[in-house]
Amino acid sequence: MKKIHHISDDYIEKNCNFNELIETLRDGFSNSDIEVPMRHHHDFSNPEEDKDSTLLLMPAFNPGKNLGVKIVTVSPNNGKYDMPAIQGTYIYLDAHKGNINAILDAKSLTAKRTAATSALASSYLSRVDSSSLLMIGTGALSVDLIKAHASVRPIKQVFIWGRDKKKAQKIVNILKDFSFTCTAIEQIEDKISEVDIISSATLSPTPLVFGKYLKEGQHLDLVGAYKKNTREADDEAILKSSVFLDTYQGGLKESGDILIPLTNGIITKESIKADLFELCSNVKKGRSSDTEITYFKSVGHALEDLIAASYFYQLFDSKE
Q1: Rg for the chain (alpha carbons), in Å?
Q2: Strand runs (DSSP E) across the chain, as ranges?
Q3: Contact 294/273 with Cβ under 8 angstroms?
Q4: Is 137 left (phi over 0), alpha (psi -120 to 50) or beta?
Q5: Helix/strand/coil percentages in the chain, nearest 5
Q6: Tens digit of pLDDT for each residue in 6-56?
Q7: Looking at residue 320, what is its pLDDT?
């Protein structure tokens, strides 16, 4: 029986090439053979924290080739235990014979595929000359989002905001040897009106990005707010923007950044320009002018996990 590989967070961290992963995802989103059921999203009580936690099950199938499922828990209060809020495992299988090829640590897998997906969207939606980025949030995704965005656009300046400025400064230190300069800032409004790209990845239940601060030509990348009653951007931000999703399947149902303004009649489904399947297949176009504000909502999709797991498995297997 074929050996089941364990592909660790450490391996994924050391071997991720964002340019390669982004192009692999571009191919994946244009592959109509891949089947992705709606992910299972189960909130469950966590009495010791007086706040719900979440279980996510995310399957995807490429018939005759490969399949996989990610098992994830989200525990919002884990910061006080010095543990990540999001934890998980990915099981990667052969779709022909059904055997397990590998078990991947899902922390880095999720971070890399999420960041690469945002950068993939940016390749269609941000201005090609975008040179400055505001990163809102200092969690596990922030470093990868900055690296991924910088792989598709000529980023020269990065500004980082977090509720704890020490954490923002820590990210500055991690990225000190990269080609762009990084600065921790005190207030979001200090830089939000000046940058070309705004990326937000937080667990904030209420908006941090306000439309009154947005300027023509910006690209907004919203990665947090994974629940129906949470959002990272306000109504004015979405009204001023052209709206795009990673997928209609999840984007229209799972995140408050889209669901709340939809429910309240602020926008309609027809307001949404395209998802990544349409962009990557050249069915629809992305940015239409240098003055347009683009708004991308990432919810996460099991296709991204399957494509990323296949990418890292092939890298790992080729070296065995």
Answers
A1: 19
A2: 5-7, 40-44, 53-62, 66-74, 86-94, 100-105, 132-136, 157-161, 181-184, 197-200, 219-222, 242-245, 272-275, 294-297
A3: no
A4: left
A5: 35, 25, 40
A6: 999 999 999 999 999 999 999 999 999 999 988 888 999 998 998 899 998
A7: 66
